[in-house]
Hints:
By secondary structure, the protein is α/β, with parallel strands linked by helices. It is 33% helix and 19% strand. It has nine helices and eight strands.
Amino acid sequence: xxxxxxxxxxxxxxxxxxxxxxxxxxxxxxxxxxxxxxxxxxxxxxxxxxxxxxxxxxxxxxxxxxxxxxxxxxxxxxxxxxxxxxxxxxxxxxxxxxxxxxxxxxxxxxxxxxxxxxxxxxxxxxxxxxxxxxxxxxxxxxxxxxxxxxxxxxxxxxxxxxxxxxxxxxxxxxxxxxxxxxxxxxxxxxxxxxxxxxxxxxxxxxxxxxxxxxxxxxxxxxxxxxxxxxxxxxxxxxxxxxxxxxxxxxxxxxxxxxxxxxxxxxxxxxxxxxxxxxxxxxxxxxxxxxxxx
Length: 293
């Protein structure tokens, strides 16, 4: 269901956009994707997320596929988790990779991210945010989603948040992490100054020293042993922000972990999205009980 405010803005101001030089085709494409806003309370703030569903029934699992007791008429859901400098709105093309395979997507702004970050600072226990947004979805029977088994995929710092959440959230049945750190604090001295400043501000730290201490709390040591869901870790050999060995260490310590290294990939494999996006989407579809379209 389109947001009423967005629909109203389109109806009233479309001519103005065109008159001011926005290409009509670009305007139609930009305003045409369907997404529903999902909100969940957390502490004294609100988590915000965009829910998108696959078109029609294409790609849905045939009857009998997946686990016993699963609802095979509803699309599985993948929660997409941003990193330090990204937001839910950046995931449009990554969402499409899942949607075309028959999965729904929920791109979220968690603590310290996007609009949620204005009220809630970064927290190491990101599973609290994921749990809250999944609770909000479960309270909405009208959404027509299969929530018996959810996937989670995170990018950059989200590549720490996703496996961290999956280790303690039983509703997550498969997790993918792209260029995620094992211990963010260990990287502090080598991080770009703007990255350190961003973390310091978004974590609510007083200064660089306090930011460094808070960064060390983002540590997967002692966590991954509890991650029993299948886990895919992907990174690039040319990553200058999170060295690939950090991501590989997380994969090695995850009981069901697998690791993919693109030797010419940059941070978050952003220079080769045509390679990692279909890889992750195909893998996630297989894990969530589907037969690949």
